[in-house]
Amino acid sequence: MLNKFMGKTKRVVVPAMEEILEKEFPALDKGFIRLVDYMGGDASIVQAARVSYGVGTKKVSEDRGLIRYLMRHRHTTPFEMAEIKFHIKVPMDTWRQWIRHRTANVNEYSTRYSVAIDDAQQTSENEWRMQSSSNKQGSEEFFPPKLGREFTIQETEVQKYARKVYEKRIAAGMAREQARKDLPLSTYTEAYWKIDLHNLLHFSGLRMDSHAQKEISDYAKIIGNEIIAKWVPLTWEAFLDYRMNAKIFSGPEIKFLKERGIFTNLNLEDLDLYQGSGFVNEKGVLTREGKEFQEKLKLLQGS
Amino acid sequence: MLNKFMGKTKRVVVPAMEEILEKEFPALDKGFIRLVDYMGGDASIVQAARVSYGVGTKKVSEDRGLIRYLMRHRHTTPFEMAEIKFHIKVPMDTWRQWIRHRTANVNEYSTRYSVAIDDAQQTSENEWRMQSSSNKQGSEEFFPPKLGREFTIQETEVQKYARKVYEKRIAAGMAREQARKDLPLSTYTEAYWKIDLHNLLHFSGLRMDSHAQKEISDYAKIIGNEIIAKWVPLTWEAFLDYRMNAKIFSGPEIKFLKERGIFTNLNLEDLDLYQGSGFVNEKGVLTREGKEFQEKLKLLQGS
Amino acid sequence: MLNKFMGKTKRVVVPAMEEILEKEFPALDKGFIRLVDYMGGDASIVQAARVSYGVGTKKVSEDRGLIRYLMRHRHTTPFEMAEIKFHIKVPMDTWRQWIRHRTANVNEYSTRYSVAIDDAQQTSENEWRMQSSSNKQGSEEFFPPKLGREFTIQETEVQKYARKVYEKRIAAGMAREQARKDLPLSTYTEAYWKIDLHNLLHFSGLRMDSHAQKEISDYAKIIGNEIIAKWVPLTWEAFLDYRMNAKIFSGPEIKFLKERGIFTNLNLEDLDLYQGSGFVNEKGVLTREGKEFQEKLKLLQGS
Amino acid sequence: MLNKFMGKTKRVVVPAMEEILEKEFPALDKGFIRLVDYMGGDASIVQAARVSYGVGTKKVSEDRGLIRYLMRHRHTTPFEMAEIKFHIKVPMDTWRQWIRHRTANVNEYSTRYSVAIDDAQQTSENEWRMQSSSNKQGSEEFFPPKLGREFTIQETEVQKYARKVYEKRIAAGMAREQARKDLPLSTYTEAYWKIDLHNLLHFSGLRMDSHAQKEISDYAKIIGNEIIAKWVPLTWEAFLDYRMNAKIFSGPEIKFLKERGIFTNLNLEDLDLYQGSGFVNEKGVLTREGKEFQEKLKLLQGS
Hints:
The structure is a homotetramer of 303-residue chains.
Chain A: H1 15-20, E1 24-27, E2 31-39, H2 42-50, H3 63-72, E3 83-91, H4 92-98, E4 105-108, E5 129-131, E6 139-142, H5 145-171, H6 176-179, E7 188-196, H7 197-207, H8 214-231, H9 233-244, E8 247-249, H10 251-259, H11 288-301
Antiparallel strand pairs in A: 1-2, 2-3, 3-7, 4-7, 5-6
Helix pairs in contact in A: 2-3, 3-9, 7-8, 8-9
């Protein structure tokens, strides 16, 4: 009976994840994401967070409220208590962006040991994108298919040519580590990628964003919508509410709204204002989340 | 003439920092923060960010605008390009929180090699704080001095007693690593602490927050207001605007404001609305920051 | 049939670990280590390492040989593919050392939210250690029990006194975050601790070492001998052979051995030399490990 | 007079580094390494290490001995107290390996914002390497120039072709982020790279190793021999002795040497044995390093 403070903790199993273990989610033309393993779930986040409350307070908040509280206040360490491992197949160009997420464990297919994967990501005629004029790093609308067809034909040629050169080198006995040097960035690679949930959400936040490049975004959306949403549904909902769909108002912006008196005539104490909004519980009082919202509005009101 | 793309980069020297090198800023009763060294400054953040723009775009944005843009969009890597080193003296109890910031380099005074520092943090009679009733992890108002005096007298005794026991053990030849085991958490320790600016701002954001414990907050405020503000004034201003003084509105909150029609009657296209707000430049048009704000308001308006 | 290169990968289950899930291993007088969950095992290390070999080479090495090869050549990333989570109870003084291992996920019991755990680590009369004269940071032999008894009595007093002061403060309504400041370092804390195998072995290597402090070493030995050894038996054997029981000979030392001619008269090509040593396989030829050893000896021989 | 324990610490300036600030060291055919800035040096490593010794022990070891001791016993944190920043130009294929070193700060030239650098790494006719038969991931001897000439001609063609396709796409208004997808891995990129000395030595150890690919090894050797050696000469010497030129003998190997009696007839106590070896100081007694060596030999002797 030593551990009276934190209580017995059990391994967390998520049935919805057991069902998609080893399942392959296709991405782009020849890529995929496969779920290899996971550790923990919403329940282990709650478990870890409650370490901070001690024995007497186990039932103070229900799980959803606690997870939303953690997300809202950027208490990030409990989200590190869940871990996930993928096997992915991805073009090297996309991998170049992916690998910038440093807090993860990686084992990539080695083209020093083995012959490079004989797949390159091919863009079909209706997928070629124009340079965005407003966003220096982005894309805008698609090229008309006629022009797209030309790009695709040309791409097929350059990819075939580069592969032929590669294979000639290999056939001549060239070291694989050198032979690969002129392969196109569109060449596919594979890797194991293992990461904790906090860092995975950071990845999702950046790579599902509208500024992210479409290719990596495709992967991020599959990971988010098909896998994380099943793995940790409460965390995923909170993440969408507080990160993806949230807006930050800066100090100067808040000053502006306050000075322009935009909120002046709202009676923030009148609970009728909040009816039907999700900020009031079944007893008709503001939830913890509701009170924090009220505080933000008061601040804008200058009270 | 090889490096035509990124241009020649120079070491950045910040005169205001040269003046406070080795300066000791006192903290709590016997602690301090001393600036040992630094690398980079606002200019090296800009330098790093411009890598992404290439040669032709060097003057597109002036430095302040660029730094604010980076901060607003959480482009964090350029802030990692500046580094700083402190020598600090801090109670072990505060150090327990400090050390949780993992992305930093640390060398702490060893009480295995050397006799423990003969200083404990003493709380004066008017500094004892009551448990907050609203915030489980916080403090509220101060105890009346009369009661505070008793606490202080008692603390002096318990600290003296624990030190006496420690010194007896040392005098008897006990291993220092074991002798220290009953020293109070209020005992001071010293350390070198080296960290990059991105992670330091994360520290500032958490530890200058109103929910942080007063003791570590005292240190964080000195580091922020006395050192970072001098080191990288543009970054510090952006940090205050977009982190410390910003408010995040969640998805549900934005939906609420939109549905309640609070912004309905604002004509957001009327530039007069923004006059005198800092969101309009000298030519009377919205700045990039202003446009992004307008977008947020439109979103609330449902347009 | 997309993933022809890396092959289908399955979740790894280790029966010996399933048996000790949630088991509590006692440590020190009132501490413990409990296994909460794990991901992967020897098989997933092999799986990750084979990514580098591609499809044709799956059977080139058997698992044990491959794991030993990885360990010998410090190919560390495959060991990051296994993850483990513990719940521990440990004195704060020991935790101060533990937490210095930065690449881990941690949730510690909060003494801001909750009353401090009412347990302090007590040293019994025959466990008090003298300062080592040869090793500035170490301990030597034990104090005689008579003297030890006095230390223990005194410790009990100082711990009781400090706790009484703490409880008076709490009873008076003092903020928990401040009340705790004079608790002794011997006070127990609890935490979840999650880490990958590579970093856990690093922890084991440092904390099972003879220079580590006895208290943390007690924990490290339980983790190593009772848990890691069951989890990844092949990796653990390799770790003992190549880290714990290995000796490094520096450049100058190798030069010395070579110049002094100590190995001169050995005929390193004579396979009889290696019989019965484990460096020769059943066919009587040197294993890969054996050849690498022969190379080191040749180097010493100056050939 | 607060900081009596750790003493006043001064910023460390290394004259040999001031001389090469902003200097460009060429690498491969069109790449380079340029030193942008640095913080600390041998002196700050010593400073950080001495934190552990306290005030009375400042002169116990001279700097060289202390640094060698730290390196020998893998006390790595003091080496984290020195930091360095480079601007590099490197082929993307080499960068793919480089970026795997995660504990570093990086800002890479963006080919989403800007047109890709118009340089590809070209291999000259006498630099094409054959696949090693003994080492699956390595190279062996060079191809004869006649064959090499063909490879070079073909490479020039494939690079030119891929560049032409890229420029056509750009001219047609294709988004840069998509246009780049078929550029060869040999295309150059540029980046700022900032890292602490401990992690930089880890990079050096792996990338200067004979198993590293020649291209990244070329960079690592320049960084090591031309820059680190000037920056921290004592650390660099210790690194060469204890890492690059050291040999590790595993548990089974030590057992073998011991059982085969190879060291039996050495009288390890006879100091004459060590004369002229650097393990004896001017007074004729073994240094700390010498004693540790003697211990290793005793271990082999079975005494």
